[in-house]
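User: Show me a protein chain along with its predicted structure.
Assistant: Here is one chain, sequence first, then structure tokens.
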Amino acid sequence: MYERLRAYEGQAAANSGVGKDPVNEPMIRHWCEAMGDTSSAYPATAPATMLQVWTMGGLSGNAGRTGVYDELFALLEDAGYTSIVATDCEQEYVRPLRPGDRVTFDATIESVSPRKTTKLGTGYFVTTRMDVRVDGEPVGNHRFRILKYAPAAKRPGKGTGTGAGAGAAQAPRPRPVVNRDNAGFWEGVADGKLLIQRCDACATPRFPWLPGCGSCGSPRWTPFEASGAGTVFSYVVMHHPPFPAFDPPYAVGLIELAEGVRMISNVTGVPYDKVRIGMPVELEFLRVDAELTLPVFRATGVSDEGASDSPGDAAVPGKGA
């Protein structure tokens, strides 16, 4: 099987693809509003992390697709690897994109891993590299990696509908990806602290952890401890698809901290269908198992009835809560 998959390495997934729309101010504005980015640099230029946006084909796809990607996926699905999850994306930037630029791109299946066993199941990691150009000149590239897998068998158990209930007993909670950019954040969690960054040049706070400031570009920053107070800025209730260690339905909140940054986490202390925008929350640390502790946010000013902590999970109040 692996040799058949490796035959796709180096094959073109798209040749001379053309972005459906030129770089434009409305899309830049929508992106910045969604990200809470108020930098004066936009929309004169597009945020660098929008690189992939201008290559997306939507439901109807892009001209230039070769069908190779579909063939690879069909081979995997016929072999039982029917589920998919995006794992990470690496981007490199050559120059900013500006309104009016029309992007073109080539995509190549760069690598297919040997079969791997993960917490989600057994499958193959597929990495695609896309080179993006304007007027024939490189503006950036990105590698997008997915896992095509066969879901692990779910052990018997009765769920609680909170996302941290029986599913946590059936399979270990997925571990966060720790790298050189966010290692300090997870070290803080291990010490019972929620650390965010503050730019040394312009004093702008930021989260998630990044190597440079999105407002002024300075690479100098200092971590500081958040108070732990916040509100639910937005949320979704997850019903499908189910994943091991998570027991739908459960709420995932976008929490706006008192320091002005936002982070995604679980909302505890209230049933999933009682989470509301504007609800005040406070930090606590959820001990998922002997090796993993996560920062979550408990709704304040509500009764404990229907609290979403699962049996066996120890919640430790945040130091600043």
